[in-house]
Design a protein that fits this description.
Blueprint: E1 4-12, H1 18-25, E2 31-36, E3 55-68, E4 71-77, H2 88-92, E5 97-102, H3 111-119, E6 124-129, H4 139-146, E7 154-157, H5 162-178
Parallel strand pairs: 1-4, 1-5, 5-6, 6-7
Antiparallel strand pairs: 2-3, 3-4
Length: about 180
């Protein structure tokens, strides 16, 4: 039996950990379109809070994880910078849901992803990437800061940790299976 493909998007702001998330959970070597940040991008890429970042995704990240013998998740990580957002519509087409990865050091970089998936009625979960040096917030504080409805699950995770990333995906799949589309 050939497993059914299930498309999942991993989105979020610049430097939120999307490439790391896809890489940590993928059972195959992930495809990554990471490129070195250049001087040309200094005028458009805000490195505030992520000053040590040296690379960025310029197209997408791709990984795969078998959910069961009957289902395989195909993970598509989006680029985080505004100049690459034009790709999000194509990447999101056919997805059952999205993990919106949030950097708690820079919550404001998450608004665009939350808005994008809300407007398209694509089920999503907010996964707060708990960086070592990041402030710790309760889920209710994240919900309020991002103005996320109660129906949207919020999970704390560590994008570097396979089990933690898998749990965020499990929350998304469960949420997507029970989500009732809301009118636009």
């Amino acid at each position: 039996m050939v497993p059914a493909p299930v498309k999942i998007i991993v989105a979020g702001g610049f430097g939120a950990g999307k490439t790391t998330f896809v890489g940590s959970v993928s059972e195959i070597p992930p495809l990554s379109t990471e490129e070195v940040l250049t001087e040309a991008g200094t005028a458009v890429d805000d490195l505030s809070g992520v000053e040590r970042k040296k690379t960025t995704t310029v197209a997408l990240d791709f990984g795969r994880i078998s959910l069961s013998p009957r289902h395989v998740l195909y993970l598509f990580g989006t680029p985080g910078q505004a100049r690459f957002w034009f790709m999000w519509n194509d990447l999101a087409r056919g997805a059952i849901g999205t993990v919106v990865l949030v950097d708690p050091r820079r919550l404001e970089t998450s608004f665009a992803a939350v808005d994008f998936f809300e407007r398209r009625n694509i089920p999503f979960v907010v996964a707060v990437n708990c960086f070592d040096d990041a402030p710790r917030y309760h889920a209710a504080e994240i919900r309020e800061a991002l103005v996320v409805p109660d129906r949207v699950p919020i999970a704390m995770c560590d994008a570097r940790d396979r089990e933690s990333s898998k749990m965020a995906l499990v929350r998304l799949v469960k949420h997507a299976m029970t989500a009732v589309p809301t009118p636009v």
